[in-house]
């Protein structure tokens, strides 16, 4: 008996976008491990150089994130997505060529990683802004769920696959395979047939571009729903980043867990993300989109507060507890993200879509360096366990902020941006 396809599985253009972005996501996650391993194993990079390599990956979001949003709004989305996939592949191909001619240096790797990061910024903003043109508003939850499913799968498999490829085929061949994932993504995108609406002509002078950036930021700050979602996301991201490096110290030194179990615990976040992508649509139908956004974040905060209990348990029970926490936390974060992304694109005018996504991304990513620095300082000052408690309470603070806003009362996605005030 043949399985009957339904929903967006039957949507040809969405399938091509989804398959293409899925392949690109795997390529991106492979590079997250492949490039650091390349630096460590082939270039004998120092710890400081490894840190710089990590920082360079995130630098493009802060440097060009807002300008990228304007550019995305000024250009057709599909050709732009195809172009950045091809450019990422070409930049990656520079690595094996440099290795073949023996002129690969850590400085060149910095440049390549930065250039890939620049194109990834355009890809991420472009994909978020393109999806609403491909599918209907009422299909956004399903569409974002499928995208999150792919992202979660890539996060579970991608980095381990990167290590396996280097082990099996050597680093140059692994990098070539990674470049091919981006070319494959571009090929899928060329198969999308739906035409985008005409782009509104804008003045490309720098002062006008700055004005358009300001327009995107103004929309995010003036729209009470998107402002609430952005502030909550900034609070959540700040305290999550505050916890991440401290959590590694806690499980390795505080609990004394062997690396194999630490790897298992971290892998469970990917499993939880898959679960979240599966249940998001059902939860939204049962609760309504606003309550689902709030409740999922509350559950994530409560789960995170359970981490310190691992100190009181025998090793294997503490491992089981942390696995449970990772699955619950990551699944609820994915449910939250799917719903808040769907809500914000449904109430954003088409001509502001890129700037809205870029402005929010800029605000959220701006919390990364500050959260990491304060987390490290708190860990040294009050201890790792206490810092984790502060982080968990901060995540709950983000949920409480949303619970006190009018977002909690939104039941359905509006049919068009003008309906936002009606449904809030």
Automatic annotation (TrEMBL):
GO terms for cellular component: plasma membrane. The keyword Cell membrane applies. PROSITE patterns: MFS. It is a multi-pass membrane protein. Residues 225-424 form the Major facilitator superfamily (MFS) profile domain. It is found in: Cell membrane. Keywords: Cell membrane, Membrane, Transmembrane, Transmembrane helix, Transport. Its main location: membrane. It comes from the Bacteria. InterPro entries: Bacilysin_exporter_BacE_put, MFS, MFS_dom, MFS_trans_sf. GO terms for molecular function: transmembrane transporter activity. It holds the Pfam family MFS_1. Signal peptide: none annotated. The chain crosses the membrane at residues 21-42, 54-74, 86-103, 109-135, 172-190, 228-248, 260-280, 287-309, 315-338, 359-382, 388-407. This is MFS transporter.
């Amino acid at each position: 008996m043949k399985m009957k396809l339904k929903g967006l599985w039957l949507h040809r253009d969405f399938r091509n976008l989804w398959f293409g972005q899925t392949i690109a996501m795997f390529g991106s996650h492979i590079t997250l491990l492949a490039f650091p391993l390349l630096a460590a194993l082939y270039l004998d990079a120092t710890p400081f150089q490894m840190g710089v390599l990590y920082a360079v990956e995130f630098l493009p979001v802060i440097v060009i994130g807002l300008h990228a949003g304007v550019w995305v709004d000024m250009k057709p989305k599909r050709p732009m997505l195809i172009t950045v996939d091809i450019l990422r592949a070409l930049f990656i191909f520079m690595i094996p060529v440099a290795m073949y001619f023996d002129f690969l240096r850590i400085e060149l790797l910095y440049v390549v990683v930065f250039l890939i990061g620049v194109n990834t910024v355009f890809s991420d903003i472009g994909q978020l802004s393109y999806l609403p043109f491909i599918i209907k508003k009422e299909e956004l939850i399903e569409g974002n769920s499928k995208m999150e499913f792919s992202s979660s799968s890539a996060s579970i498999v991608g980095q381990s696959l990167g290590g396996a490829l280097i082990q099996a085929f050597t680093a140059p061949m692994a990098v070539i395979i990674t470049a091919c994932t981006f070319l494959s993504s571009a090929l899928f995108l060329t198969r999308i047939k739906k035409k985008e609406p005409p782009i509104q002509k804008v003045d490309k002078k720098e002062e006008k571009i700055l004005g358009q950036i300001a327009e995107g930021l103004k929309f995010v700050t003036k729209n009470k729903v998107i402002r609430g979602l952005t502030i909550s996301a900034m609070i959540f991201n700040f305290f999550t980043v505050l916890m991440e490096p401290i959590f590694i110290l806690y499980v390795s030194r505080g609990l004394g867990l062997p690396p194999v179990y630490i790897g298992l615990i971290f892998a469970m976040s990917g499993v939880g993300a898959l679960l979240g992508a599966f249940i998001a649509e059902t939860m939204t139908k049962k609760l309504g989109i606003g309550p689902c956004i709030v409740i999922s974040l509350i559950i994530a905060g409560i789960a995170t507060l359970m981490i310190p209990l691992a100190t009181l348990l025998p090793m294997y029970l503490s491992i089981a507890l942390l696995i449970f926490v990772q699955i619950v936390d990551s699944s609820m974060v994915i449910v939250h993200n799917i719903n808040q992304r769907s809500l914000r694109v449904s109430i954003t005018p088409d001509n502001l879509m890129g700037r809205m996504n870029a402005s929010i991304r800029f605000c959220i990513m701006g919390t990364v360096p500050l959260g990491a620095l304060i987390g490290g300082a708190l860990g040294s000052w009050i201890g790792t366990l206490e810092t984790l408690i502060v982080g968990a309470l901060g995540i709950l603070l983000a949920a409480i902020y949303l619970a006190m806003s009018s977002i909690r009362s939104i039941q359905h996605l509006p049919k068009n941006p003008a309906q936002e005030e009606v449904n809030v």
